[in-house]
Write a structure and sequence with these properties.
By secondary structure, this protein is an alpha/beta fold. It has helices at about 10-15, 35-40, 50-60, 60-65, 80-90, 130, 140-145, 160-170, 180-200, 210-220, 230-235, 245-255, 290-295, 300-305, 320-335, 375-390, and strands at about 20-25, 45, 70-75, 100, 120, 140, 155, 340-345, 355-360, 365-370, 395-400, 405-410, 415, 420. It is built from 16 helices and 14 strands.
Length: about 425
């Protein structure tokens, strides 16, 4: 077996499992759900195996007789087991009984939400901290707590390394592969989504080439708040018989059910003095490598500004957009571990924006992302605007860069290389 790559979710799972009856770990295929939960389980039922699925569904005592924790891998293949687990937890609810993994939300399933019985967690591709590029010296949790007022540290990682990480993927099974093998695996991953996963979700794709162009257009909108109309127009330039709005919304919903989209929603603080805040999410695929592969980018393309033009109101080249996606992926992982929420901030007219806002209670970390060694005066200005505008919260200000040194400026803005930021 391949060596297990530790995940930040490991500690949370180990802490929760003894106290809750069931945990469902959800996320896109290949993110490591099975490897992570198998380490905790004593009994494993792989429900994508028809014989195993028949045994679990055909004999009611199978689950009760199995030694816990019991892992039901790919539970969505047999949606009825969700309610079965819920009822077993209701009837006899000691902690540590069940683990469920799922890489899709069952189409049309009427399963109970599981609220109060089944704790649901999302697993994503590997963050920068999990990839082991450098030892993080700046804790997002400490910034939220207000206990970190000065940052420091040195990173060996430069912009060439970040470009490579964008292409290399955070799917643990692809780590260490050759470039050619990685590209072929990603091509196969995307083909499987279109040819197999969409039909299994009840979404028949009559024109696979059009769906692929739409996916490429979505990838070009990475890190932007582009409308779905703009994404569709970019996918079908010059075509009079365009896809209907309902079809494109069905694409989005199916990709969401497969955990392929990881959009970052808008920050809408309660009692905000700004009623004109934008309400459009920022677009991100589950893994920046999928976006890069859809756009057929090489590291040379990223570093020299090659590739198609980005889509959306936000300015910048694809390197900046995909570096932001790499940071977004990491922030999603760190925020979940720290019980915080990741959002972005943009006013309705686009005059003021902050790339990311991490919020927990009244504590906020404003984050600007720059795919360069310098912070840039515009990034700092946006963060100071955030602090001046939202005075009812505690704001820490961070510029995440592709540089090598972490330090705190005289005005209190923390400059943090992406590889040095951790949970």
């Amino acid at each position: 077996m391949a060596e297990y790559l530790p995940r930040l979710l490991d500690d949370e799972l180990s802490e929760l499992l003894p106290e809750v009856g069931a945990i469902a770990l959800e996320g896109a295929k290949g993110v490591g759900k099975t490897a992570t939960t198998s380490r905790l389980a004593r009994t494993v039922f792989a429900l994508d195996d028809e014989a195993v699925a028949e045994r679990v569904t055909g004999r009611s005592a199978t689950l009760t007789e199995a030694e816990p924790p019991v892992l039901l891998d790919e539970w969505q293949r047999v949606p009825a087991v969700w309610d079965r687990v819920r009822r077993l937890v209701d009837a006899d609810g000691p902690g540590g009984r069940f683990l469920l993994t799922g890489s899709a939300v069952p189409k049309g399933s009427q399963v109970h939400s599981g609220a109060g019985r089944i704790v649901r967690l999302r697993m994503r591709p590997m963050s920068l901290a999990e990839r082991g590029l450098a030892t993080p010296t700046v804790s997002l949790g400490a910034l939220l707590d207000g206990t970190l007022t000065q940052v420091e540290g040195s990173s060996p990682v430069g912009i060439d390394d970040y470009a490579a990480e964008i292409l290399r993927s955070g799917l643990p099974g692809l780590r260490g592969r050759s470039w050619r093998a990685t590209r072929r695996e990603l091509d196969g991953y995307l083909a499987n989504i279109i040819d197999r996963e969409f039909p299994e979700q009840g979404q028949m794709v009559r024109r696979p080439d059009t769906l692929l162009r739409w996916l490429r257009s979505y990838a070009a909108a990475t890190g932007s708040t582009a409308s779905y109309t703009a994404i569709l127009d970019a996918a079908t330039p010059g075509e009079t018989a365009k896809l209907s709005k309902n079809t494109t919304l069905a694409y989005r919903d199916t990709l969401s059910s497969l955990w392929m989209l990881d959009d970052v929603g808008p920050w809408l603080p309660l009692g905000s003095a700004m009623p004109s805040l934008g309400k459009t999410p920022k677009h991100f695929l589950a893994d920046p490598a999928l976006a890069a592969r859809l756009l057929d980018l090489t590291d040379r393309d990223l570093l020299t500004g090659g590739g198609p033009a980005p889509i959306g109101p936000q300015q910048g080249q694809l390197l900046g957009r995909l570096f932001e996606a790499l940071v977004a992926l990491s922030l999603q992982v760190y925020s979940q571990v720290g019980e915080a929420r990741l959002s972005h901030l943009r006013d309705a007219k686009g005059r003021h924006e902050v790339d990311f806002v991490v919020a927990r209670g009244r504590a906020v970390v404003g984050i600007e992302v720059k795919a360069s060694e310098q912070a840039g005066s515009d990034a700092v200005d946006h963060l100071h605007w955030l602090g001046r505008t939202f005075t009812d919260v505690q704001v820490a200000k961070v510029v995440v860069t592709a540089g090598r040194e972490a330090y705190t400026r005289d005005d209190g803005v923390h400059i943090v290389p992406a590889a040095l930021l951790g949970p």
